[in-house]
Specification:
245 residues, Alpha-Beta Plaits, eight-stranded antiparallel barrel, 28% helix, 36% strand
């Protein structure tokens, strides 16, 4: 894959499962990462656990919500996901599901030594955007990082324009990140670069050496299909694009 090429479509599938389905969900997390990457049309794929997004530590995990972030060769390939072995397996244990279709706007850094979203050049956006942060924590810095998170998480919870947010993570525990959905790009920019708690965390990052690898990406939300409450999406009177309100 050309690492500089910007994919035409990235999807985020999120499944809500019943607590009793946890053993089956854990089995899927063990078996399906390789199957996802081997799915025809998939250029990059990650299966992810999720958390509430309040602490990003061991106690933050949500064992009833799971996700797959997938970079596709084409929208046609993505359209067949529900009929793939991975899609069918998760549908059997999910009680609710949602798919978010994304167009990359910006991406900085690497994920598993890859640049899965290429080098997007932005472009006009008339509706909601999704921000993805992902980092591999250095084990010796993990506790310091987790102690620094609560002020930022508290500020994020009340940020103007925030529609949804949750944590995401791979195994082992230190491979983790965040997903946040914003009503408009200006809301995301205002929090990321003007909110004092977040700016303080950004300033500390290079001196603290928290991460051995990190990535930040921003996407235009092209469509949301399914039950968006799985994302924790809150009602918003201004969110009328595409009949989502």
């Amino acid at each position: 894959m050309n690492e500089l090429h910007v994919p035409g479509l990235v999807t985020l599938h999120v499944w809500r499962t019943a607590p009793a389905k946890l053993p089956r969900a854990l089995a899927r997390m063990a078996l399906d990462p390789r199957r996802l990457r081997a799915t025809p049309g998939v250029r990059f794929g990650k299966l992810l656990g999720t958390g509430t997004g309040t602490g990003f530590g061991p106690g933050d995990a949500d064992p009833t919500r799971w996700a797959a972030l997938t970079v596709w060769d084409s929208p046609a390939a993505a359209a067949g996901f529900d009929d793939t072995p991975v899609g069918r397996a998760w549908a059997r244990i999910a009680r609710a599901t949602v798919r978010v279709d994304l167009r990359p706007l910006a991406s900085r850094g690497e994920w598993s030594r890859r640049r899965p979203f290429g080098e997007p050049s932005g472009g006009p956006v008339g509706g909601p955007v999704l921000a993805l942060t992902r980092a591999r924590l250095r084990a010796r810095r993990a506790v310091t990082f987790w102690r620094a998170v609560p002020p930022v998480a508290a500020a994020l919870r009340t940020a103007p324009g925030l529609l949804a947010r949750f944590g995401v993570g791979e195994a082992p525990l230190g491979w983790q990140g965040t997903v946040s959905v914003w009503r408009a790009p200006a809301d995301l920019v205002a929090f990321a670069y003007r909110h004092p708690e977040h700016r303080a965390a950004i300033t500390r990052t290079p001196t603290e050496g928290w991460y051995s690898e990190e990535l930040f990406a921003r996407f235009e939300i092209r469509d949301v299909v399914g039950d968006r409450t799985v994302l924790g999406w809150v009602a918003d009177d201004q969110d009328t694009r595409g009949g989502w309100a």
